[in-house]
Design brief:
The protein has 233 residues and is an alpha+beta fold. 57% of the residues lie in helices and 12% in strands. Keywords: Membrane, Transmembrane, Transmembrane helix.
Length: 233
């Protein structure tokens, strides 16, 4: 029992530390976060207390208001923290990879399956929606990179749908904060075994490229180093 209690205490301390760290990071980008959270929590409590006094049950409504106030505060904090995190990542190299890394179960992600010298990059995710290629970088340059990778996917797994997402704020692009939502809204057309088979084929192709003998001397212009295996999620 003592070990379980110690483990529970350690877990709670870890959560509180994580919440405090998240709050500090959010406050750097959102200076009013403290005032907003206080207004939400106290406002909710105040409304329920007022109703409680009107109907003659201030204690019951006060307890309910306190609980709902904490819940509302947590929801608002989570949304503003997420918005602040995306704001800090926006425009940073590898930001889309970080989003894919946290997309959730059922997806297998492989960052930087294609890249050029200007750090325009294409990431790949495989799930029940098929293959999703997520590109970030200069729109004019990365479109060529994205088209080449999509063509390669159609050759390797012609029976699997291939979607493409260009991260950005321009026309025809998807904002970084909406990438995960956009992917999760894609229709699910593959079964679990089909997803596994697709990953196996892509992994086999990657292993085949990595085992090819490299020519001596400097690397030819435009040639890309093969990437490692996919990262399962």
């Amino acid at each position: 029992m003592a070990r379980k209690d110690n483990a529970a205490d350690a877990a709670n301390a870890g959560r509180l530390k994580q919440i405090a760290l998240t709050y500090k990071m959010t406050r750097k980008a959102d200076k009013r976060i403290g005032l907003v959270l206080a207004a939400v929590g106290l406002g909710t409590l105040g409304v329920f207390l007022a109703i409680g006094f009107l109907i003659g049950h201030p204690v019951y409504l006060g307890i309910l208001g306190l609980l709902l106030g904490l819940l509302a505060t947590a929801i608002v904090f989570g949304r503003r923290a997420e918005r602040a995190a995306f704001g800090q990542m926006e425009g940073q190299p590898g930001a889309a990879a970080a989003v894919l890394d946290n997309i959730g179960r059922g997806w297998t992600t492989t960052p930087a399956v294609a890249m050029n010298r200007n750090q325009d990059v294409v990431h790949r995710a495989v799930g029940k929606a098929g293959i999703v290629l997520v590109a970030e970088g200069n729109p004019n340059r990365v479109k060529t990179l994205l088209a080449a990778e999509k063509k390669k996917m159609n050759r390797i797994v012609a029976d699997v749908p291939v979607h493409d997402i260009l991260v950005g704020a321009g026309e025809g692009q998807v904002e970084l904060k909406k990438v995960r939502t956009t992917m999760l809204k894609l229709p699910r057309v593959l079964t679990g075994p089909q997803v596994t088979a697709t990953n196996d084929r892509l992994r086999a192709m990657g292993d085949l490229l990595s085992n090819m003998p490299m020519p001596k001397g400097p690397m030819p212009k435009g040639m890309r180093m093969p990437k490692g295996g996919p990262k399962a999620r």
